[in-house]
Specification:
The chain is of the alpha/beta class. It is built from 13 helices and 16 strands. α6 (234-241) packs across α7 and α11 (337-349) crosses α12 (362-372). The chain starts with 9 loop residues before the first strand and ends with a helix. Residues 1-7 and 52-63 have low confidence and may be disordered.
């Protein structure tokens, strides 16, 4: 167990003062901090005074720099992994500063952008840009498959793939269970495209915590959770009982069913506070009748063609953005991104700039764009024509969960 932190209450998540994590350090009211990514304590989380690392046997350290040359694709005898599997996943054995290391290559798009380096003493470091990554092995499998297995480490990922003759989609998060939520969120559209998602995290406390956190990102009924018949992880099970046992655990993974049935006698703390007031609308009478607009509600506007439904909806959106400062997601399926942009810029200028810019200079137009759409709070869906409902729902979920609109 890691050493106990000094007294203090959790305040917020911050960027780590040591590693590349943008939100992995928990900051406490006592001024201390603990990063759950690189497992480092800070006696002074404001000034960066490092206290100690956890007592975990494997040490973690960060190292930036150019990517190492790809090493040899070798059979990992102690892990029961073939050279063919290592080659498929671009997992090689090479050298870093003259010392033997294992190199797991990560990608973003078509390019190699980072390497997770594992030394003989189980120390870990990074080369390249490790902030925004695809999942390990993601480049091998196209979207939309029947099943995706997600592990919390490269070895377990390759183990499960080897047990299935490298024919079925298996990926890993880059930095263990504590990074799972972050990297699944970054690649949510890809993960959601599969018919089912099997979370094959380690059978320990951190792995179970990661499961509880990650299932909130994914569609209800899509997630299954893999267990290992008393073993810690997939590789340990494989070495002890063989590939048939691993495959059995995949197919017998339990569908995740979150707790959701409560007794009415236990909900007082949820209902004792009065509802929060809604955000007022630009139309006083409608705002008074509905007492504003609140999160968790769906409003539907209906009227004949050309009456002004889109105009009213976008006026409300503009008001929420400019007066209330909320992040706004715009998914207009019957118009282009340019048409949507001209609506909001036109509201700002009080001109129908989608028809003509006569009397409006380029500087005026650009200033209105910066004020309305170019402030970083607006996200638009560029649909390029028709799209199916599953793809549409995946985009909606990403805008809501990933972008916070």
């Amino acid at each position: 167990m890691p050493p106990k932190l000094p007294e203090g209450d959790f305040v917020e998540h911050r960027a780590c003062l040591k590693c590349d994590s943008t939100d992995g350090m928990a900051y406490y009211s006592s001024g201390t901090g603990y990063c759950y990514v690189c497992e480092t304590y800070f006696a002074n989380a404001d000034g960066g005074e490092e206290c100690s690392n956890s007592s975990n046997n494997s040490t973690k350290r960060k190292s930036k720099g150019e990517l190492l040359e790809t090493g040899d694709y070798r059979k990992l005898t102690s892990r029961g992994l073939s050279a063919e599997t290592c080659r498929k996943f671009d997992y090689s054995v090479g050298r870093d500063n003259g010392k033997p290391v294992q190199i797991a290559t990560y990608r973003k798009g078509k390019g190699k952008v980072a390497q997770h380096i594992r030394s003989k003493d189980k120390g870990f470091s990074w080369k390249g840009k490790a902030k925004i990554l695809e999942l390990f092995g993601q480049h091998l499998w196209a979207k939309g498959g029947k099943r995706l297995v997600i592990t919390e480490g490269e070895i377990d990922c390759m183990t499960i793939s080897e047990c299935q003759d490298n024919k079925w989609a298996v990926v890993s998060v880059p930095n263990g269970a504590q990074s799972a939520h972050k990297y699944i969120l970054q690649n949510l559209e890809y993960v959601e495209s599969f018919g089912s998602v099997v979370l094959a995290f380690d059978d320990d406390k951190e792995g179970q915590k990661a499961v509880e956190k990650c299932v909130t990102l994914l569609s209800v009924g899509k997630v299954k959770v893999m267990s290992y018949d008393g073993f810690k992880d997939a590789n340990e099970l494989y070495l002890e009982r063989g590939r048939a046992a691993v495959i059995s655990c995949i197919y017998n993974a339990d569908e995740y069913r979150p707790d959701g049935i409560v007794n009415g006698a236990d909900i007082w703390d949820r209902i004792k506070n009065p509802p929060k007031p809604g955000l007022s609308l630009p139309y006083p009478v409608l705002s008074k009748q509905q007492m504003g607009i609140r999160g968790g509600e769906l409003w539907m506007f209906t009227a004949g063609s050309g009456i002004g439904k889109s105009t009213v909806v976008n006026e409300i959106g503009y008001d929420l953005l400019m007066r209330h400062g909320v992040k706004l997601g715009i998914m207009a399926l019957e118009e282009s991104v340019r048409d949507s942009a001209d609506r909001y810029i036109g509201i700002q200028l009080n001109k129908r700039v989608g028809l003509t810019r006569q009397g409006i200079s380029q500087d005026q137009y650009k200033k209105a764009w910066k004020t309305s759409l170019g402030n970083g709070k607006v996200w638009l869906f560029d649909h390029w024509g028709s799209t199916d409902i599953d793809n549409l729902m995946a985009k909606l979920r990403y805008m809501l969960v990933g972008l916070g609109v």
